[in-house]
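General statements about sequence and structure are easier to judge against a single worked case. In the encoding step, the backbone of a single protein was reduced to a row of integers, each denoting a local shape. The record that follows shows the chain in one-letter code together with its fold in token form.
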Amino acid sequence: LIAAADFAYGAMENAGAIVYREAALLIDDRTSLARRRAIFSTHAHELGHQWFGDLVTPAWWNDIWLNEAFATWISDKTMDAIEPGTGWDIGPVESTLYAMRTDQLASTRQVRNPILATGDINDAFDAITYQKGGSVLNMFETYLGEENFRAGIRLHMQRFQDGVATTEDFMQSLADGSGHPDVVSSFTSFIAQPGIPFLDVQVSCTDGAGALTVTQSRYAPAGSTIDTEGSHWEIPFAARVHDASGDHVVRQMLSDKTSHIALGTCPDWVMPNAGGAGYWRFVTSADNATALLTNYASLGTGEQMMLSDSLNAAFAADKLSAADVKAGIEAAAGGAPEAIGESIGMAETLKSMLQEDKTGPFADWIEATYGPVWDDLSTRPAPNMSEAERLLAPQVRTLLLESGNRPDERAAMLSRANAFLGIGQAADPAAVAAEDLSAAITIGVKDGGRDFYDGAIDYVRASQNQTERATILGALAGNGSPEIVADLLKLALGDEISGNELYTIYVSALRNPAARPVIWPLVKDNFASIVARIPSIRVPQTAAATGSFCTAEDVADAKAFFESQADLIPGYERSLAQGVERGTLCAALKDAAGDDVAALFSED
């Protein structure tokens, strides 16, 4: 296991000599729990590649998912076996939610994607190959049962040991080993076409007999060009049904546009994604939706997360009101730690749609919703908290400091950040816990201004800790004033900042709404220098920054600029298309729901 000083990739699974970027392998007493888990996951992923990729190698790049999706899937299973009960079993659900952010775009691609140009190879190393592919594997393992699925995998390893294999080879091994040849067409429907199944699940009760009517389409956010009726999946559907007899899971392969499932007795509620293992989003009957929120605490962690995601997705598709999303966030705030963490992103989406001087009622709501969560977490010593709670705590603290009403705590965090960096005093590494470093730098640069920035840069210059350096630089770029971020970008074009760190600054600065109007012209003027210094694998990804804009005019301007730089960023086309689409959808959602959100948090 080799820790390279500034390796562009996270890690590379060379047989017998895995190369890692330092921050992806090395751990010390300043390494946060979240970072430790990321390192463990990367390590398990690369070891998984010794089988998936090294022992059996894809015949061509269009089957790279046979490498990366499998290594993603096996890494969660590996870590769950090593550290049971610490949340690794939720990994596939987290992968699903991450992948869907890209898979909801018209410009997304399928898991098994044709390779027509060199740029298509780089495109293959994204959330669709890794996270969607891993989630689909988990879904079919759940459907077939672990033993049957494992038998298919083992047969595949035996058949093609020290050789190459295709997707067709794998499908045959899965069919033969599991004893379920009928699953191949369903599996293929998820990897051979892009997009997310969107299920309309209607729950009915007639004469004491319950039933589900499930209609499938393709999910599309408001403003999307997706043909929602142009895709069709064979879906290994599973729903958790609660009725007078208790809980049970109903499973059925859904091959038709509309399917009917008899339930027997009338249900109290139906969760249309049992365990959260299914790769789909859903809407459901109004009464059932209300019952699910009322019984939110009775749902499993993965189910809570997938319910919250489906509510947020329905809002983004202009099929749900801001008030309904707000109710969903409030329900999630009483759920499992992982579900609370997901709800924070939903809350931040609502805030992004408010004018900066109109956030008073929003801050009050944040305090009422998440204040009790923090009161519970902050009063318990770490040994009495689960890993999920320890991971959640800094997220909640950051939300309250940035979006709540906590001036005294902000001042205390600024003081701690100054002490950590050694601004006006001797540096104290114990002043800020590793988990709080990003929040401390964020509050510091917002409230401490230029003096704080200068002290932070002095600290970075003296540090050789890659993780701390990247955290500090990203927080400065993402939260500093226009003048501070402009100076940081200029500094990053010199020799004191690595190429990886420059890319972090570039992305974070363009996501900083306050600084973007100043930074974007600076990026344009220095683009050739930026491209020359960042890792080659990041060069085509620079065009994804178009997604940082949220008006039609700004998106068009960014699109025209990156197209004018085509010779500098070969292979940029998909990154640009997805960036343009993200920015366009952001503008469309604001147009569709901005007034609704503003009215919801009105001061009247």
